[in-house]
Amino acid sequence: MAPRKLAAGNWKMNGDLAALAEIDALVAAHPAPGCEVLICPPAVLLHPMKARVDGGAIALGGQDCHAKASGAHTGDIAAAQLKGVGASYVILGHSERRADHGETDAVVAAKAAAAHAAGLTAIICVGETEAQRDREETLTVIASQLDGSIPEGATAANTVIAYEPVWAIGTGRTPTNDQIAEVHALMRERLAGKVGDASQVRLLYGGSVKPDNAAQIFALPHVDGALVGGASLKAADFGRIIAALDAA
Ligand code: PGA
Question: Where is the active site (predicted)?
Fold first, then answer.
């Protein structure tokens, strides 16, 4: 059986208390979606957002966590703290964190292990740069990021993988269907050596997913949903993506 599909919204460093109205609109428009719906807002919005979705069909997640359980790490957030305010997921190793904060595969794996220990599902992001794609290194890069970023103990229940080509994020450009399908097939195969129930691991595509291209992406083999940035900020747009995933 195919795993339950996942529509995940990554708000990045966008949104404030007024933006909670978008969540109300999303819940009103999609009270019982067939796919799992997840919003990862800035951490400061998790708690107030939880109150809006409590008992509803929307799950919440953080955008990063520290590898340690607690301690002297000014400005960081522990996985258990995310969990404590209502998160059940955390995005890890997003290319913006890899680039802005120098996160290596080993750091991402350590954070994912911490997320698992706290009972969170880790959404581990991988993706090639445009230069790497031009040099035809995409599959090697993805394989090595998967090998390095997935910790021991990863299962289909506690781990989701997002393929996000760096050059497709926020640019309006997307890979061809064949390029997405090629990477997703490689990921499924690669996971078989690392995660026992690899066929059940959700594999998301991310990078300029919009209402207009969602259906075509969701029709591809081994695409179990999307990680959506810009188009997750507006309930109307994200709602159309959820509907496309439900119809896939
Ligand atoms: P985008 O971002 O949908 O705005 O391209 C995706 C992401 O970075 O998760």
Answer: 94, 164
